[in-house]
Amino acid sequence: MQTKNEIVENWVYRYTGMPAGAFGDYILLTNFQNYVVKFAEIFQVPLHGKDRAFSCAVNQDGLSIINFGMGSPNAATVMDLLSAVSPKGVLFLGKCGGLKKSTEIGHFILPIAAIRGEGTSNDYFRPEVPALPSFKLHKHVSQILVNQDLDYRTGVVYTTNRRVWEHDEKFKQYLREIRVLGIDMETATIFITGLANNISRGALLLVSDLPMIPEGVKTESSDKGVTQKFVDLHLEIGIESMTKIDTEGEEIKHFLY
Q1: Is residue 257 part of a domain?
Q2: For the chain, where are the alpha helices, taking DSSP H only?
Q3: What average pLDDT does the chain have?
Q4: How far, in Å, are 100, 111, 154, 170, 181 from residue 177 at the CA level?
């Protein structure tokens, strides 16, 4: 195998246990296995790739979900592999830390951009290239949130490769200075690799912790509470958004330059 197309066409099955042609036009991404399990249970469909790096499921209408694991390298890998699928749209259902007093646990963030603090995206574009979602995809997700009378935030999030930082006051001061709304480990990478692979992409993030204060740092107990209270709704919004966008949403394909 010499070309990228040859590699990703082969590796989609290698990583997920499903061939590229089995995925639908719209794909949900997550880094939590319970999202994929819940999706499979909702639609009564098989869960694939349990013995692979990325587990996945596809419903009867072709809507697909993939758990790619944690971190920006995995996020870049799954977006590269999806270039073999050429989906019409990809929505990342991730969790993030809320960094502002206006963000509370259970809030949703629809990021207008992400700061590329993870480094992985530098292998795709120069650091000056902004990490942006596909506007019309986010516009559609926003309308779904409004229709359900759900409160959400928009703003810039920071994506980092560093998982354990909550003790580092210098880094926390840096986050305050750049005025970001949330922090995660994948969003900027997905936005940049989506651009690189000509894939329309977005992210709907669930605020799962408040890491700027000691009592807000995520724990085993607090994470279970977030899962019980908010994950079903998070997944429901993702499913509704990517199910209806083909019939109700605007065309989300961007011009090429």
Answers
A1: no
A2: 4-16, 33-43, 72-81, 135-147, 169-177, 187-196, 220-226, 232-248
A3: 94
A4: 12, 18, 18, 11, 11
H helix or E strand, kind and range, residue 117: strand 108-117
Length of the chain: 257
* 153 within domain boundaries: yes
Q: Kindly provide the b/e burial profile for residues 61-74, where b requires at least 16 CB atoms within 10 angstroms of the residue's own CB.
A: eebbbbbbbebbbb
Question: pTM score, two decimals?
Answer: 0.94
| 102-147 confidence digits (pLDDT tens) | 899 999 999 999 999 999 999 999 999 999 999 999 999 999 999 9
Q: In angstroms, what CA-CA distances link 61 with 35, 65, 153, 239, 254?
A: 18, 12, 30, 11, 24
Domain of residue 198, CATH code: 3.40.50.1580
- Taking 70 as the threshold, does the pLDDT of residue 254 lie above it? no
- In terms of Cα–Cα distance, which of 147, 150, 172 is closest to 162? 172
Name the domain count of the chain.
1
Taking only Cα atoms into account, the Rg of the chain, rounded to an integer number of angstroms, comes to: 17
For residue 249, name the pLDDT band (cuts at 50, 70, 90).
Answer: low
31 located within any domain: yes
**Position 251 confidence tier, pLDDT thresholds 50, 70, 90:** low
List the domain range (segments joined by +) for residue 39.
Answer: 4-248
98 located within any domain:
yes
Neighbours of 106 (CB within 10 A): 16
Other Cβ atoms less than 10 A from the Cβ of 230: the count is 18
6: exposed, middle or buried (Cβ count in 10 Å: 0-12, 13-18, 19+)? exposed
